[in-house]
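Suppose you are handed only two things: the residues of a chain and a line of SMILES describing 3-phosphoglyceric acid. What would the bound structure be? This form records exactly that question and the answer produced for it, so the two can be stored side by side and reused later without any lookup.

QUESTION INPUTS
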Amino acid sequence: MNKKSIRDIELKGKRVFCRVDFNVPMQDGKISDDTRIKAALPTISHLTEQGAKVILASHLGRPKGQVVEELRLAPVAERLSELSGKDVQKADEAYGDSVQAIIDNMENGDILLLENVRFYPGEEKNDPELAKSFAALADVYVNDAFGAAHRAHASTEGIAHHLPAVSGLLMEKELDVLGKALSNPERPFTAIIGGAKVKDKIGVIKNLLENVDHLIIGGGLGYTFIKAQGHEIGESLLEEDKIELAKSFIESAKEKGVKLHLPIDAVVTAEFSPDAETEIVNIDSIPKEKMALDIGPKTSELYADIIKGSKLVIWNGPMGVFEFDKFANGTKTVAQALADAKDTYSIVGGGDSAAAAEKFGLADKMSHISTGGGASLEFMEGKELPGVVALNDK
Ligand SMILES: Nc1ncnc2c1ncn2[C@@H]1O[C@H](COP(=O)(O)OP(=O)(O)OP(=O)(O)O)[C@@H](O)[C@H]1O
Ligand SMILES: O=C(O)[C@H](O)COP(=O)(O)O
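ANSWER OUTPUT
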C-alpha cells in the first residue's frame, strides 16, 4: 500500500484521533457479534504500547444526525474494555469542551471512546466545520475503519485534511489482501457472487469479468440470469429491467473466456417461510406458482468442485435464503468447500456472507474475512475509497 501507516510515524505522547468501524449488530441493547471490535485491537494495542493517547471514534447504525439513545456507544466501550483488558473511558459527546476536558486529563496509553459520530448532522454531510472540530481534539489522525472507508464523511475523510493522516493496521491488512488478490491473483481465480439483487452487484460483476477465470452466480440475483437464458422462473426474484444486462454479462463472459456458472437446479417453495414445504427441481422446470429460494444439490456440488480446483476465491453474497435452515444448504456447501479447500486462498466479503460463515461455524477456516460489506464491494468494483484516498502517501 502506498499510504503511510501507524508504523511510519512517531506516536509517543501524541493525541491520536482513531476512526474505527464499531458499527456492530445489536440485539436488545447487547452486541450480538463483536468481530469488528476484535479486528481493531491490533491497532489500539500498537497505539497504547507506543504511548499515544487514544481517542476512538465510530458510528453505530444510521441515527441520521440525531441522538438515538439505543445507538449510544456505551455497550461498545464496555466490550472493548473486556476484550483489551484495559480501562476505556466513554465520552457522552464526540467533540467540544466536555470532550476536551477529558482529553486534557489523559495519560499516555489511555483510551477514550467518543460518542456516536452520526449523532451530528455534519458527519454524513462531511461538514468542514465538524471535521475541524474533530481535528482540534488531536495531533494525528488514524483511519482504521475499513468498513466505512467508502463513505466520505467528516470523521472518515474531512478530518484527514487537517492532521497528519495515516492508516491503522486493519485498514492496511484489508487493502493489502484485497489489493493483491485483484491485481495479481493466483489462478484459477474464482469469484462467487450471490445476494438479493443484480442492481447491487452490476459494478462488481463487470469488474470481475475482466479478471476471473470462473464466475459463479447464486442467490436471488441468479434468477434474472436464468430468465435471460430463456427459462421460466415462477415467482422467484426477478429484476425485469436487468434481463438485458444479464444477457450481456453472459455474452461478455463468453468473449473473455470466463467460465460463467449459473444454477442448474433449485430448491423451490410456494411460500416464503422457515417451515415451508420444499421441492428440488431442475432449473428449466421451476413451477409457475413457486419461488426458488436456494440453489439445488447438483448446483451446490458443481460449485464446490470449482472452489476446490481454485487457488483464489472471492465470495460475496449468500446462495439462498440462508437465514431459514431449509434454504441454507447451498450457502453452507459453498462455505464448507471454502473451509475444506486447503490450497485455496479464500476471501469472504463482509456483510451477509461473513454472517453466513459465522452461522455455520466456519469463519475461522477462511483465509480472510473482510470487516467491510459495502466497502469491500466498492473496492472489488475498482472504485477508490475516499477514506483511503485522503490519507498521506508514503
Ligand atoms: N433466492 C433468493 N430469493 C430471495 N432472497 C434471497 C435469495 N437468495 C438470497 N437471498 C437473500 O439475499 C440477502 C442477502 O443479499 P444482500 O444483497 O442484501 O447482501 P449481500 O449480497 O451479502 O451484501 P452485503 O455484503 O452488503 O450484506 C439475504 O438476506 C438472503 O436471504
Ligand atoms: O456496516 C457497514 O457496512 C459500515 O459500517 C458502513 O455503514 P453504513 O452503510 O451505514 O454507512
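WHAT STANDS OUT: The domain at 185-379 is CATH 3.40.50.1260 (Rossmann fold). The CA atoms of residues 182 and 211 lie 8 Å apart.
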